[in-house]
Amino acid sequence: MTGLSGRVVLVAGGSRGIGAATSRLLASLGMRVVVNYRSNDADADAVVEAIRAAGGEAIAMRADARDPHEVDQLVRAVSARWGTIDVLVNTVLVPFAIKPFQDMTWEEFGGKLRDEMLVAFTLTKAVVPAMVDQGYGRIVHVATNLARQPREEMIALGASKAALVQFARYVAQELGPFGITVNVVSPGMVDTEVAGTLSPQVRARTVAATPLGRIAQPEDVAGVVAFYASDESGFMTGTYAPVNGGLTMD
To answer: Which family does it belong to (predicted)?
Structure first.
């Protein structure tokens, strides 16, 4: 993939799961990686150490992506160190309730919707001014196939990620004239801690229904994120890329 070497990427939620895999891959392709995290110093430091051990450049920076003040401080710190942010990857997964709609409170449902959009809005708002000034930017949001394919007890996650998909399309339309692309990577079930909270029966059904015969690894998703960050995707914006082994074929 071209156009990545030397560029600066902010991976929000970059210390675990899909974010960690994305951080490691983009660093291996020559990017300078900011591993953003909210609370777990040890996980973030481990990702940075792995990147540096492999010869890459990375720093860990703490900020709650729901807090505009903390995110603005983060962006200023990155700009002071490396000059700019060329690519934003939003892999933040705000906790959510797994239960039927009839058992759910508004606080559980509305809180997830609010936090999901607050993260996307806050991160995008913070990086866009510099991207506009330089006439270049890549923004990649990670959603889920549940945004289009409902599954029992996943209404909070699915509805909030559906909102994220539409948000990305509107921002893509507005920012296209400035040389900024905005795209969504939408995995199915991924072998992370979230999948570990699901029952073995749900996991088995998902594998059985997937033509490629397994659930995704974080690295499967990271590869598609890297494509959207690269020059090869330069004429793609407002798109939605399913990464689910053929479970759903959008």
So the answer is: Belongs to the short-chain dehydrogenases/reductases (SDR) family.
pLDDT in tens, the chain (250 residues): 899 999 999 999 999 999 999 999 999 999 999 999 999 999 999 999 999 999 999 999 999 999 999 999 999 999 999 999 999 999 998 999 999 999 999 999 999 999 999 999 999 999 999 999 999 999 999 999 999 999 889 999 999 999 999 999 999 999 999 999 999 999 998 988 766 667 788 888 889 989 999 999 999 999 999 999 999 999 999 999 999 999 988 7
Radius of gyration over alpha carbons of the chain, in Å? 17
The CA dihedral of 95, 32, 123, 72, to the nearest 10 degrees, is 110
The one-letter code for the residue type at 41 is D
Distances, alpha carbon 152 to alpha carbons 98, 157, 158, 161, 210, in Å: 9, 11, 10, 15, 18
Burial (0-12, 13-18, 19+ Cβ within 10 Å), 16:
buried
16 phi and psi, to 5 degrees?
-145, 160
**Assessment of whether the complete model's pTM goes beyond 0.70:** yes
The CA-CA-CA angle for residues 147, 149, 154, to 5°, reads 70
DSSP characters for 148-204?
TS--TT-HHHHHHHHHHHHHHHHHHHHHGGGTEEEEEEEESSBTTHHHHTS-HHHHH
